Input
Amino acid sequence: MSRTQRSLQLAAYADGEVAQAQRAAIEQELAKSPVALREVEDIRAQRAALHRVFIEASPTAELSERIQARIREDRQRASGRTWRIGLASAFAAAAVIMMSVRLIGPELWHQELVSPPPLVARALAVDAVLGAHRVCSTLSDGTAHDEFRVGQKSIVEANRILKALRAMPKEGAALPDLSESKYALSSACACALVSNCEVVHATYNSADGVTLSVWMSDRPLALSGASKLRRVSGEGGRVYQVAEVAGGYSIVQWDERLASVVLCGEMPADQLLKIADRIQPFGSAARPTVGPRVAIVEMALLRRS
Output
């Protein structure tokens, strides 16, 4: 079963729309897989947030049924696409219908139109980053995990392949060119760091054998579980999360307009930050503004102090 089919199956389970026999099989899987269980919990949380939008906006019963019907149609059409696209279409359909009613007249509304809640940063354990870096960069046969077969190709060609496969977390995002930092692309895979995220993991090698991992995720991330975690202001207004871990490894994370980016390598944090500063923003010349993730990190730092 593909990742998309599995996500659709878990979504149907979360909505109570699977047969009894299928439900029993899924519940057995959830009992054994914390990742699958977390994905179901995330889906239910998204449904609850969307439900709150409907309740606070107080549309008529007829309008609610039309919205729910449209969401079900989008889910059915999503069987041949990614779950991320289907969910975005559902939110878009709900927003369009609700905005139309807002324009029809205030008698259908008790208050102003309520916007969908923003994405909340997902906690990302530094141990998970380091473990994935070690596993994917060196497999048992000495090669890297090159699921998309981009090793030794130019960055332009690799990004063309990933775009054709629709492997990037968001349209317009692309693997960075690290040639200025003397690193060449060696592999790319879809190994996720956290559940319910679209992720591409690329590894780069330098001439002296140092391996650098770059992850790109479709939603904000917040590093956690590090004894040394700090925020650093970078070039052009970027705000980096920086973690230094045992064994001489460093991890740097920041959010772009089209992706959340994580770098990991066996080098001092200052050296990794210089590499991060050379990476151009994806899809726009403007640096991203600082969002709710910074507040989350600040709270975490305050708790540690």
Observations:
- The longest strand covers residues 199-206.
- The chain is about 45% helix and 20% strand.
- Residues 3-108 form one domain.
